[in-house]
Write a structure and sequence with these properties.
Layout: H1 2-5, E1 13-14, H2 15-20, H3 25-34, E2 37-41, E3 44-47, H4 48-52, H5 56-70, E4 75-77, H6 79-86, E5 98-102, E6 109-110, E7 114-117, E8 126-129, E9 132-135, H7 137-147, H8 150-162, H9 168-176, H10 184-193, H11 201-212, E10 219-225, E11 231-239, E12 244-248, H12 253-257, H13 264-282, E13 285-289, H14 297-307
Helix pairs in contact: 6-7, 7-8, 7-10, 8-10, 8-11, 9-10
Length: about 325
Amino acid sequence: MDELLALHDSPVFLRGEALDHGYTDKELRSGLRAGHLHRIRQGTYTLGAVWANADAFERHRLKAAGVLLTHPGTVMLSHTSAAVEHGLRLWNPNLAKVHVTRLDGSPGRSSKDIVYHQGAWTPDDVHQKEDRLLVGPLRAGLETAALHSVEQGVCILDSVLDMGHASLDELHGLGSRMLAMPHTRRLQLACRLTRVGAESVGESRLRMLCWQQGLPEPVLQFEVRDHQGILIARTDCAWPELGVLGEFDGRVKYGRLLRPGQEPGDAVFLEKRREDHVREVTGMRMVRVIWDDFDRPRLTAARFRSQFNGMPAA
């Protein structure tokens, strides 16, 4: 059935397409039982190996592609589904249902696996990505932020800016025009807290932890230069007036730092030398945050306060 996977840009095909290519329902059922096929939703299939090797985001993309195939030209991906398709950074999103916006004027509703939105749109809002229709990344980010918490929304909207999809002014402009959307207050707060400079979900969450715990807002992507003005490092964030640098250490960070032939331990050693050099040049203290630190926000905030020059404990 490999030829069926070549019908569309996504490795998804419909029951009717399989029948048109000479396969039978009996063969489809046999393929499902043997694990060669996987039914994504009623009448929509992919290979079992494709589904088994897909993570949660890729599985959502496969579901979304199947929905578009069964609604040709009448809907476009929107909200979380469009954000996934654009590759925006999503932290713990709700991927239970595929979100689409009606293009045919039909009313909005929700089914077992699809949310149909009836929103205002113009031809400029409809984007073509390969064979899929979807809203643009800025609108997708704003729509998705409205469906999630403020912290999740900031992670998404930070990525819209970081990936070059919009400027901060453009984000605020479109955000202010979406006042009729549900959860507007949450969306508007996320817009106000969005900043240029966060390059990962962890960096966005670190800034949100500061906001939630009453810490000063950090400077993002702080440049450290030596006495000759040469750039020697760039830290995720900093509080220069308080003498503290901040770094988020995600699990994949040191993998990105690896050079050919290096082991993870080599990258950790070089990163330690970099940190020592930065502290020597600046005279500032370094606080590192890992994923688990977000689960204990008060203790993490206390760590920062203990390092801030002249800032009393909470």
